[in-house]
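lol forgot to send this yesterday, sorry. struct tokens for the thing we talked abt
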């Protein structure tokens, strides 16, 4: 029996209530992180970063752009990772969009240090995404491809996303001031290190 098969037999399946709780809490953490990004005029990688840049350039609210940009990626997820995964991802994206819209009304910062914002936004989003990943859920976009590559080829999701994020952050020089881009790079590094250090093949055996 291969190591992968041994790990599969040892996996502890998550209950429905555990998946639901992870979806809600993980989405809340990501939404708070996105609210901090927007307040500090920073950007993050992936589809969320594209949605933030769209908001800065056109005024389209993050929650709306995030929902619309994710639509084409559901097809890839359906073909590669199954209907249950896509359904959970759709719910997570919808929750992040909803919570992001509401959090902007729930939380108002009278003062927000940019360095603190970069570190905490990356920490919140990384931890929330880790929670979602461990319950076979993503936030769409390159998250879908990252999970597919890790589960099928052992390529760590965090490192893959770091490369994608670098490309998106480089493009943000066209929209943001250089100091904001550098702080965004710091935030993306924090986020992806959380995923790279904690979401490794074989380290966590829970299944949904």
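and heres what i got for the seq, position by position
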């Amino acid at each position: 029996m291969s190591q992968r098969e041994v790990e599969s037999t040892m996996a502890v399946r998550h209950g429905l209530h555990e998946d639901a709780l992870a979806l809600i809490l993980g989405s809340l953490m990501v939404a708070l992180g996105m609210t901090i990004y927007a307040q500090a005029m920073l950007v993050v990688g992936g589809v969320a970063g594209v949605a933030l840049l769209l908001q800065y350039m056109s005024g389209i609210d993050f929650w709306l752009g995030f929902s619309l940009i994710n639509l084409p990626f559901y097809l890839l997820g359906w073909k590669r990772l199954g209907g249950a995964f896509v359904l959970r991802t759709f719910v997570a994206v919808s929750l992040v969009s909803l919570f992001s819209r509401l959090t902007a009304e729930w939380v108002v910062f009278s003062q927000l240090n940019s360095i603190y914002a970069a570190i905490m936004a990356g920490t919140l989003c990384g931890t929330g995404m880790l929670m979602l990943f461990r319950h076979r859920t993503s936030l769409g976009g390159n998250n879908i491809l990252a999970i597919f590559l890790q589960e099928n080829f052992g390529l760590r999701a965090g490192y893959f996303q770091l490369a994608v994020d670098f490309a998106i952050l480089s493009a943000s020089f066209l929209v943001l001031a250089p100091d904001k881009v550098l702080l965004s790079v710091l935030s993306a590094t924090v986020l992806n290190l959380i995923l790279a250090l904690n979401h490794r093949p074989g380290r966590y055996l829970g299944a949904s």
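The CA atoms of residues 77 and 145 lie 8 Å apart. anyway ping me if u want another try
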